[in-house]
Amino acid sequence: MAASNGPLKSLSFDIKLQDDQNTKLNHKEITKSYSFASRSHNDLHQYDDDHQQPNSHTDDQPDSDQELTLDQLSQEIHHFIVSLSNVEDQSQQPLQIPNAVAEFLKKLESKIGEYEENSVAFGGNGDADSSFIAAVTRLSSLMEALGAFESHAIAVLNEGSAVLHHAMVFLEEEIRRLLEESSAPESSNNPDNSHSNSSSKNHHHQPEAEGDFCLLPERKSESESGTTTVTLPTFSSEYLSNIGLICEAMIAGGYQVECCNVFVIARRHAFDDELKRQGFDKFSADDVQKMNWETLEGEIATWIRVFKHCSSHLLPGERNFYNSVLADDQSAAAELFSDLSSAVVAIFVNFAEAVAMTKRSTEKLFKFLDMYETLMQSIDGDDSIYSEKELRSELSFAASRLGEAAVSIFCMLENSIKSDTAKTPVPSGAVHPLTRYTMNYLKYACEYKDTLEQVFRQHLKTEQPEDYEVVGSNGGGERKGESNEKQSPFAAQLTLVMDLLDANLEAKSRLYKDPSLRYIFMMNNGRYMLQKVKGSPEIHQVLGDNWCRKRSSDVRQCHKGYQRETWTKVLQCLKHEGLQVNGKVYKPTLKERFKNFNQLFEEIHKTQSTWVVSDEQLQSELRVSISAVMIPAYRSFVARSGQVFTPGRQTQKYIKYQPEDIEGVIEEFLEQIKMENNPRKSSFKDQPDPLPEKSPVLNKSTSFSTHKGSVENHSTPDNDASTVNGEMDEASRKIDALIDVISSVRDKSDLPTIPEYVETFTNMVGSQIDRYIRQEAPLKFGQDLKQDTTLINMVTLLSRLNNLLDQISPDEKVSPSLSITAPVVQRAMAFMEKELRILLQEGSEETKKSEEEETKYPGVNQDTIENVRRIVDAMISGGYHKDCSHAYTSLRKDAFKEAMKHHQGFDDISYDDVQKMQWETLEGHIADWVKVTKHAARVLLPGENNLCVSVFFPDHPSIGETIITNLTKPVVTPLLNLAEAVSLTKKSAERLFKLLDMYEALTDLMAALDTSKCSNSCISELKSDMLVTRRRLRETIIGIFDDLENSIKSDAARSPVPGGGVHPLTRYTINYLGYACDFRETLQHIFFIYQNKVDEDETAKPNVNSSDQSSASDQSESESAVPKKYADFAAELIKIMNLLDDNLEAKSKLYKDPSLRYIFLMNNGRYVLQKIKESSEILEVMGDDFRRKRSSELRGYHKSYQRETWSRVLQCLNQEGLQVNGKVQKTLVKERLKSFNQMLDEIHKTQSAWVVSDKQLQSELRVSISAVMIPAYRSFVARFGQCFGSRKQADKYIKYQPEDIESSIEALFDGNGQNLSMARRRLSFPH
């Protein structure tokens, strides 16, 4: 069994354990070494070959007729050992060796052979196994006892040592097998299976393997009445017993180091597998830095879960396991557990420290605190598994790094509040997003109050603000107006954040021009903050009651300020002073007071009904306070002054509202609900019914007057519809003819009298408009095309006639008719404008749906476009082109803004703000800008352009051109301003890709302008600005590539990468270039312009194909085969790659070992080559020839490595000169083999610690080494192996079989640093 196993693998963390334990064992005077690799049978065979003396002990005792068992022989050996202990003078008396010793050794050797040949399975018979282990232990005692009689018992010592060594090799393999098989499911024939399976189901955490568990009691907690158990690793009780027996035997035999090594390696591998099964992977610091936050957040959650499970279950189980199987050597158990726990803790600590070094951002705070709490809980517990000072120090350091990062992140909140300088006020004075974000963030942060208090005490480096210093004689720390107790660092920081938020909100309130709205804004935000603090016990505990009282006082002051600013002037109108003159009410003053009151009240309602107070309690308080001062004052004023007016029209004109109306309107304030158009009328006693006059509305929907003039309503019964249509057609023909007559008149004196049917036609038009306004079926615009067409034709005719009459006026023939037509035309145009707005608003609603349904913007169907076009024609024909243009432009601007907002619109940021921004913030703004710009260029601008063309072209092209210009320029200009500001920011490598996104987005925007119907001057101006911005972006991008070249040149680190691995500079550079190649067409365009020094407007397209015009003609012969499509960009990449090659060549010289230099160059070269192969983008730019050149360079490094490393080894296997006159020169053969063994051991020891991370390259190297080494070694051994006269000599010089060499080659480049001597196989050369 021992001979069939492969080389024993060790881990780097085993070295410390082995060194410490060797030191402990050096005091034992045992004539054995403690490494299996150095144990051999040489001593025994040397004695047999040289002395050949008879066994003097065989005559002392007669042969027994009955063969004794192993147990009986062991008992005999025990008596012999006891007798030896009674010998006083060990050097003088001759030693008599009983025959039982030889029989015992023979029987034990035979038993080992049975186990190895699998005729008897170890672990299958508990009694037999115990007997065997006891015999081995007895043999160990015998060897120790005979050591005192070395001069008299040399032969027995040699033979016994060989048998003991054989036994220990077997036991080592058995303990390795037991440990490795422990994770596999138990077989069904295990007698303990049923019991263990049933018992394990109730365990809290059931491992994947369903084998038996051995439960050991842990100490009882004072707070628990029951016994807590910790599950050991998945060993059955039988396995546990066998492992304990073997450990006891190996330690008794002086093989403690080998026993511990097997434990360390097997349990470490098992632990790694368990961590993977739990979902936790080991990540390097670079991997963690490259993770996006969503991925890292998931890994942190896994880390927390697995670390807790490891601390509470896995490591306690391991410790109990070691204490159980090494019960007689607790120091070894403690050392083993210390080694394993250190390695496991290093994995968790490395991840925690890598997380702490990631880029700081506010959303990471809570995960950092979770990790901090997890680490501190593992350290602070009374029963913590991490009791060693070194482990606790590592965990504390990692927690400290996380705590420091948490403090830094929390303090970043200050900067984010300070830097929030948005110049756009929140609509309606609502709660600002900054307030919501900050308060919710602080609320969640205060759930970690105790933890934050701890980390702030430990890590806050800045001094507390001055107003937190100890003041006064009372010795207490006092904040102005608050408690006399000095605040904790976290409480001080929290208060500072709240003060900064207050200052920021105060500044934002000044953005509102209306002082009343400023107070509404401050009240909304102040109440929101107060409610959040009161609703969270944690944050309330930190800030205290004094803060809440002060905040409530601030809100009340804002409340008073709002009432003072808003209602003082209204109440002035309701004062009784100054109304009476000589004891009588002066009506003109009273009328003026009511008129002013109505005007002020309606204006306040119109304005403040759109304002928002989201907190219902604050909303109610405001309404109650307003009503408390307004209703009594108004009721008293109306009661005293209302009877002065004549009941009827005069009363209704001035006293427009009853007190109940005022109260109802106040209830609508501050919730964005408009006042109804028809408030309740006054109802004084004995007042006659009011005249049927429409009440004035508080909010008008159009910009036109609704004055009806003197036109009477013209109603026609529905059953006479056909007659009416006939009359309208006839009247329209008459008006059309009249227009022709009037148009042909050259002299006013020849102007005919305006016929009476003009008034009839005008009344028809007015009547139709009224029916449309009342939406009498079927007269609803857009539902009946024929009726709509009739109305528009009539309005067009009437407006044409009205324009003609207006041109002739003043004239007594014209003026009477003009006074009739003008008001109706005005009403018609007001109606048309209203319908135009309705149609365009419906189009905007369709646009909103189109965002979800992916309907093409602007989402206006063809029927709606046709209706809009006909209304536009009518309004322009009627001379209302300005009103038409204004209505269309304003509605489409609103739709455009809504679409931009839906697609993550960006803020209009000033140049100075852009320059001051941190890159993380600016990066987000750029991403929004790119989305908005591309959406505007590809969807919004073309959509608006097409809609405008459909409506205004070809009949009104000049108006359409003006409208498109007015729509396009306000959209494009802010986009260009931000792009220009970004192009002038500081250059850095990480900004390249965002700048390229902007460059491509500007390409789309330029293409949209090329198809736009804007005015030529507008397009010329915008494209000129765009070209300047793109030129600046190009200069910045070129500068970034120059900086990359300089950074490669200046990277002169003097520390080589351990093991010859891939250098971080290689990874960074090739990955950076790989991402850059995603923009290969854009970068080719940029470098073509840069290399050829041409202007952008001279190139045909942004993605210039440089196959016809390229600056890469001066490339060297080796680089001329790059694809011409990307010649200019490829030339830049080749330049960077050459700089990288030069840098790596210089770094390779840092390695003293020439072989390691070539490994380093191969690793980096293969990494570059694989990236090129994996990235179709890089390959498309660089071409196959470049890839082939790289492959050729790698082959050259490969050959150089073989030459430097293996040529000298092969010289040892050179068979020339080993024979003289046909006889083998043994001395030369021995010297060659000795040199070979020494060099192979050294190479294996060194190069197994080297790293070749690419599996294909690793395989190629091993295959190429085996191809030259194995045949040469096999031939050498086959030819000269027979020249040794004994197995002893063969063991000494031919240490390895060819299979061993092959196995050792397979272990190269793993980075494990294995010891080749552990892989030695038994030799079987004939004597």
Automatic annotation (TrEMBL):
GO terms for cellular component: exocyst. PANTHER family: EXOCYST COMPLEX COMPONENT EXO70C1, EXOCYST COMPLEX PROTEIN EXO70. Residues 36-66, 181-209, 677-725, 1099-1120 are annotated as: Disordered. Belongs to the EXO70 family. This is Exocyst complex subunit Exo70 C-terminal domain-containing protein. Keywords: Transport. The keyword ATP-binding does not apply. Residues 181-200, 1106-1120 have a biased composition (Low complexity). Residues 40-60, 677-692 have a biased composition (Basic and acidic residues). It comes from the Eukaryota. One of its GO terms (molecular function) is phosphatidylinositol-4,5-bisphosphate binding. SUPFAM superfamilies: Cullin repeat-like. Pfam families: Exo70_C (PF03081), Exo70_N (PF20669).
